[in-house]
Amino acid sequence: MLLLIPGPVMTRPEVRAAAGVDIAPWDFDFLDIYATVRARLLKLAHGTGGTHTVLPLPGCGHFITEAAIRSFIPPGGRLLIPMTGSYSDRMVRLAREAGRDPVPLPIVQMEKAPPAVVAAALERDPTIMHVGLVQSETGSGIAHDIDAIGAAVHAAGRRMIVDAVSAFGALPLDMTAHPEIDAAVFTANKCLEGLPGIAYVIARIDRLEQCAGVAGSWSFDLSDIYTQVVSRGDGRPRFTPPAQIINALHTALDFLEQEGGPAARLVRYTANMRTLYDGMIQLGLTPFVQPDHQGPIIVNMCAPADPAWNLQHFVDALKRRGVLISNFYNTPKPGFRIGCIGAITPPEMAGAVATMDQALNDIGVKTRAGETP
Ligand SMILES: *Cc1c(COP(=O)(O)O)cnc(C)c1O
User: Fold this and answer.
1) Distance 166 CA to ligand 1 centre (A)
2) What ligand 1 atom has the least distance to the C-alpha of 65?
3) What is the pLDDT of residues 20-33, one digit of tens each?
4) 352 and 324 in one domain?
5) Is 14 within a domain?
6) 330 contact partners, CB below 8 Å, separation of at least 6
7) Residue 164 Cβ contacting ligand 1 at under 6 Å
8) How many Å lie between the centroid of ligand 1 and the Cα of residue 61?
């Protein structure tokens, strides 16, 4: 089965095998892997030892995003969130339920947030201390130029929290070049091509120390995780870690290195996306996002304007032919979403396009163009 979802992604058999061993979390062999993975991630994010630290939190992407919001923004603190799509919506809710004050910044749907719009919003309202940016908006498929937004936030003297969950491992992130970033968060199971169950933050140590005690949650307090790292040494988890999943990530990072790092992975994902995006347009389908805003992670297509269109029927027909896609969409209007990430290559994407052609025929869809958003 070809899995084309934006996470958990297709993984290599070696990665899955690394999760199939019994491990004691306190065993020194594992503690060495635990520490090594943190160091490898620090390097991938261009962090600087002594300035940045990588901290693990068991669980999913929402958990680490909430942890970053709680740990760096005090209760009542204001967070400007460019409203890029369903993941910015989630950030708003995470902030609000944690008692922080999210300030949604409306932007053009299905487009990147323009840095000048972010800069203007910060200038208008000096009480906003942070910007919360979804680097790759998995809802729409757009991907931001983090350098341009970061520069605007830096110039305004504000801080930034980056949801890099569907970006890290492929799209660029240079923590050393961006001192305005307090924290960037990600998980093992997207562009890192590991398994779900562990999330990480790369964060500034000075800010962790300044913000000690503001989280209002023991489980989600990054400064507490950091304190543990310092007081008990690099290798000792706070609570039981998903040791098998971290072991699998260690193997996945070997493959990322062999591939040539995030820059090389971005080239492959971009080729995957191009094959899919152009191929589906050739099938007569209508994309949600225009080419100059389309990112390399996920492609959204509009629902065909044919009475025979039915997402679940389409998903079932594809599945019978060996391709698995999401049976839901995160766009404001109906459509379908296809991930371009994971252990997959352009020839497989070309095959998936041919399979979609067949599946549309299977369910009797003749008019493939959709209503543009
Ligand atoms: C996948 C994703 C998340 C987190 O999702 P979980 O289901 O909690 O792991 C957060 N932000 C973005 C942009 C994502 O793509």
Assistant:
1) 7
2) 10
3) 999 999 899 999 99
4) yes
5) no
6) 85, 86, 138, 139, 140, 300, 337
7) no
8) 5
Domain at 218, CATH number: 3.40.640.10
| Atom 11 in ligand 1: residue holding the nearest Cα | 165
Distance CA 295, CA 239 (A): 36
Phi (first) and psi of residue 354, to 5 degrees? -60, -40
Residues 6+ apart with CB under 8 A from 150: 160, 177, 178, 180, 181
What is the 3-class SS of 11-36, one letter each residue? CCHHHHHHCCCCCCCCCHHHHHHHHH
CATH number at residue 321: 3.90.1150.10
Domain extent for 62: 21-257
Residue 44 gets which letter from DSSP? H
CB neighbours of residue 281 within 10 Å:
16
Give the pLDDT confidence of 116-170 residue by residue, as tens digits.
Answer: 999 999 999 999 999 999 999 999 999 999 999 999 999 999 999 999 999 999 9
CB 222 within 8 A of CB 71: yes
Ligand 1 proximity of 138 Cβ (cutoff 6 Å): yes
Residue 372 domain flag: no
* Residue 276: pLDDT over 80: yes
What pLDDT band is residue 373 in, cutting at 50, 70 and 90?
low
The residue whose CA has the least distance to atom 6 of ligand 1 is: 61
Instruction: Using DSSP bridges, classify how beta strands 159-163 and 130-134 pair: parallel, antiparallel or unpaired.
Output: parallel
> Residue 294, SS3?
strand
- Assess whether the C-beta atom of 7 lies below 6 angstroms from ligand 1: yes
Q: Number of folded domains in the chain?
A: 2
- 330 touches ligand 1 (CB under 6 Å): no
